[in-house]
Amino acid sequence: MDDCIFCRIAAGQIPCDKVYEDEQALAFRDIAPQAPVHMLVVPKAHMRNVAECERDHPELVGCLFSLAARLAAQEGLAKGGFRLVTNCGPDAAQSVDHFHIHILGGGQLSGRMA
Ligand code: 5GP
Ligand code: ZN
Q1: Which of 39, 95, 100 to mutate to test ligand 1, by most ligand atoms within 8 A of the CB atom?
Q2: What is the rounded CA–CA span in Å between residue 102 and residue 84?
Q3: What's residue 59's pLDDT?
C-alpha cells in the first residue's frame, strides 16, 4: 500500500532503526519512544490490525507475538519484564493502520493500561 507508512518502511522506502527482519516480519525502534526500549514488530504484508491478521493469516498472529517476546529477551528485557501491546481500531487509538505489536520495557511502566 503506497500510502501506508509501515508498508513503505517494510519496502525500504522510508528508513528505520531496524532490529530484526525475516521473510514475513520486520522489527524496528519506535520513532517516538514511550519507554526506554520501544520497538515495533510488523508483518511485511499489509493488514490493518490484529483482527484482520487473525481473519486472513491466523498463524501469523502467534508468530509475531512469539517474535516480539524473543526480541524483548534479546534486548535484555527478560529479567526486568516488558509489555506487549497491540492497538486495534479507533477505540484503542490505533494511529497507524498497519498491524504492529509494541514492545515496551527497560524501566518501570505505568500500572495503568488505559
Ligand atoms: P499506534 O498508536 O498505531 O498503536 O502506534 C503507532 C506507533 O508508530 C507510534 O508509537 C508511533 O510513534 C510509531 N510511528 C509512527 N510513524 C513512525 C515512523 O515513521 N517510524 C517509526 N519508527 N515509528 C513510527
Ligand atoms: Zn501497510
Answers
A1: 95
A2: 5
A3: 98
CB neighbour list of residue 47: distance below 8 Å, 6 or more residues apart: 53, 56, 57, 98, 99
Beta bridge partner(s), residue 102: 40, 85
Q: What CA–CA distance (Å, rounded) separates 111 from 27?
A: 25
Phi, psi of 53, deg, nearest 5: -65, -45
Give CA separation, 1 vs 11, 26, 88, in Å: 10, 16, 19
Q: Which atom of ligand 1 is nearest to the CA of 32?
A: 12
pLDDT at 2: 83
pLDDT along the chain (114 residues), means of 10: 94 98 98 98 98 98 98 98 98 98 98 94
32 lines ligand 1 (CB under 6 A): yes
Chain position carrying cell 520497538: 39
CA angle, 60 as apex, 58 and 62 as ends, to 5°? 90
Considering all CA atoms of the chain, what is the largest pairwise distance in Å, rounded to the nearest integer? 40
Entry pTM: 0.98
